[in-house]
Design a protein that fits this description.
Structural class: alpha/beta
Radius of gyration: 23 Å
Strand order of the largest sheet: 7-6-15-16-17-14-18
Strand content: 15-25%
Helix content: 25-40%
Number of strands: 19
Number of helices: 15
Largest sheet: 7 strands, mixed
Amino acid sequence: MENKIIVLGAGIAGISAAYHAQQKYPHAQVKVFEKTNDWGGLCGGFYIKSDLGDFWFDHMVHLSFASNSYVQNTFHTSSKPIRHIPTPTNYYNNIWLKHPAQNNLYPLSTQEKVIALKDMIDNKNKKENLNNFEEWLRAQYGNYFTENFPLKYTRKYWSTEAKDLSTSWVSNRLYTPSLEEILQGAMSEQTPNTYYAQEMRYPESGQYRSFFKNLKDQINIIYNKEVCMIDTQEKSIFFSDGTKESYDHLISTIPITDMVNFVDKAPQEVIHAAQNLKATSTAIISLGFKRNDIAKNLWFYVYDEDKLFARVYSPSFKSPNNAPNGCSSLQAEIYFSDLKPLKNMINNQDAKTYLLNHTIEKFIQMGICKKEDIICQDFRILPYANVIFMHNMESHRSIVLKYLIDKKIISCGRFGEWDYLWSDQSFLSGKNAIEKIDL
């Protein structure tokens, strides 16, 4: 009898899982069910029409720096890459600094540099037995820099205070320069690129998701299929349109916090654990300009808390095919969560109107553009952006994942594993999920 493998979600992990299932088990029936009418998930995208042509945007900033040769070959066979040297910048109190800011303080005033450097040199914060992310930051960078840079950015990006985060996610994501590097960067702009990736890659055309379009074209995706219940004893999935589908093996990329609501009747311990798992959502504001010189970098970070957006990137800088000839584009990301509700950020006003106006107004104040440069705009919300590494997150995650495993459900992807996975890691997560199936 033919085995039926069902994959829930047509993002990069789901597409990878379905493709590798077909490769490993060519006689199995493999189907992907996607709740929306498009593929790509968080790595997907959209376009905005203008009088000058179409502007293409991704769902947030996506660039590949995969080191795994299999991932690179898969991506680059699907779409020829444009290769960028990442040189992001930082905006702080009307000043632009190279990234990372901690070893590129040169543009600051002499007075502020003296304060920051003296504090870094005299840093008496404990270096061991660090209990949270704030303690980690103070141990690395001293109090002044920490309070004026990463603590502010943490509130904007993670939607909570640094003391409420663990340090399990940090890894090499934050650079810890030597004293010599800090002093050099305070006295000169001639500093080396110390970003954790030395090359970023993006498809020439077709948005970021074209890196795995070849795989998508080889699998069977059924769209507009939203899961509402899963009977793991009967091995049936019920959809909101009234249909159902049986399965022999089930792989899910659905956020595990949602999955516990679909699967049978979860024990209270599992429900409680899922409720303690937090993630950010993102409001993305996308703007197209009738000038081609708006974007100066691939992306930049914004520390000022009067500007709600934490990060801004340029699709047209990533690839000129993302904008009409003679045009350019930017996309701003504003993060929120249960810990920092969107309604509190906009004073209960209409989110679309408020955040579009806010972003345009701040861009003009920052000298990025003029209002008359803008020829198209878009606002949308992505409900899942990043896993928040709250204290004890891993133990809550373990409880939920064990419950799903007991129900013979294999979870993969960023929110299926509930981890800080980049796109290449999510791709491999889908591939690895198939190794857990034994036909």
